[in-house]
Specification:
Elements lengths: L2 H7 L7 E6 L8 H9 L3 H9 L3 E4 L5 E3 L12 E6 L1 H5 L6 E5 L3 E6 L16 H8 L7 E2 L8 E7 L2 H12 L4 E9 L6 E4 L10 E9 L4 E8 L6 H8 L22 E9 L6 E5 L7
Parallel strand pairs: 8-13
Antiparallel strand pairs: 1-4, 2-3, 2-4, 5-6, 6-8, 7-8, 9-12, 9-13, 10-11, 11-12, 13-14
């Protein structure tokens, strides 16, 4: 394949940029028109960016929020921030699935490649936005814990501040049992173990049980539980002991994988803080309690 063929097949996007616009008394009309004129973008592109969460409004009284309505009228002194990344806006995100709806909170399967939350440049590739749309914007959506974009698995999202507080409290006292299935490079030295290497100068404890080893690919499957919640804890811990997670794009060497990162949060179990009933969701058995 020659260079010109390569260019023809690879979409070319302009470099991402940001722009701040302060509305004046002369800036009458829809917000979309003002942004399009100042940024030199087609109105259709601005509407798309607004819908996908790339435009933020700060009013004269403060408070920053998404501005999604293209026809919104501005007041003098309003501040608009555009975070424009054409490549990101063109992405079609994988679709999450609701597995348990308890009204006050819900449990979702987040596929790999989907952000837990959006960024300044948009939120259409995030679980939070998909859940907001699923419930027709009638429920607040508050993540209770995080899961890396590259990882797949179960996530709890609260729909009231009370639920967020109660579920976060359960997490802090290890009242929510989270189990992960991870494929790592190489064969571990024991059938079970504890990794207690500090991360970011803080204590970090990862427990694992070896469930299978494939000599052909030289990979091990382990079931993991965490006693602490440090950033990228599983990924960093296994990389530090010489067994990086298969497909991890950031940590480890020799662990590339064509199908992505092999880390799945496959089981959640806890006592519902409202009904007091046991809730257990397992991706293997698709069971709910």
């Amino acid at each position: 394949m020659n260079i010109s063929d390569n260019r023809a097949e690879t979409p070319q996007f302009p470099a991402p940029f940001t722009m701040r616009i302060t509305s004046g008394s002369e800036d009458v009309g829809p917000a979309c028109d003002l942004i399009a004129a100042r940024a030199g973008l087609a109105k259709s592109r601005v509407k798309d960016a607004m819908c996908k969460g790339a435009v933020w409004l700060t009013g004269k009284r403060g408070g920053r929020k998404h501005l999604r309505k293209a026809t919104a009228q501005l007041s003098p002194g309003d501040i608009l921030d555009l975070f424009y990344d054409a490549r990101l806006l063109s992405l079609k995100p994988p679709v999450a699935q609701c597995l348990h709806d308890a009204r006050q909170y819900s449990v979702w399967f987040k596929p790999a490649g989907l952000l837990a939350q959006g960024t300044d440049y948009g939120d259409h590739c995030s679980l939070v936005r998909q859940v907001e749309v699923h419930f027709r914007l009638k429920r607040p959506v508050l993540p209770v814990h995080r899961l890396d974009r590259e990882a797949a698995g179960l996530m709890i999202l609260a729909h009231t501040k009370a639920a967020a507080a109660k579920l976060s409290g359960l997490l802090q006292v290890n009242g929510i049992d989270k189990q992960y299935r991870v494929t790592v490079l190489g064969r571990l030295g024991s059938d079970s173990g504890v990794i207690d290497l500090p991360l970011d100068r803080k204590p970090a404890i990862t427990r694992y049980i070896l469930t299978a080893y494939d000599p052909g690919s030289n990979t091990s499957i382990v079931e993991v539980t965490l006693e602490t919640g440090r950033l990228h804890q599983i990924r960093r811990h296994f990389a530090l002991i010489g067994h990086p997670v298969l497909g991890d794009p950031k940590y480890g060497q020799g662990n590339k994988n064509s199908t992505g990162m092999e880390l799945v949060a496959y089981c959640l179990a806890f006592r519902c803080p409202f009904s007091r009933k046991e809730v257990r969701i397992n991706l293997d058995k698709q069971e709910k309690g």
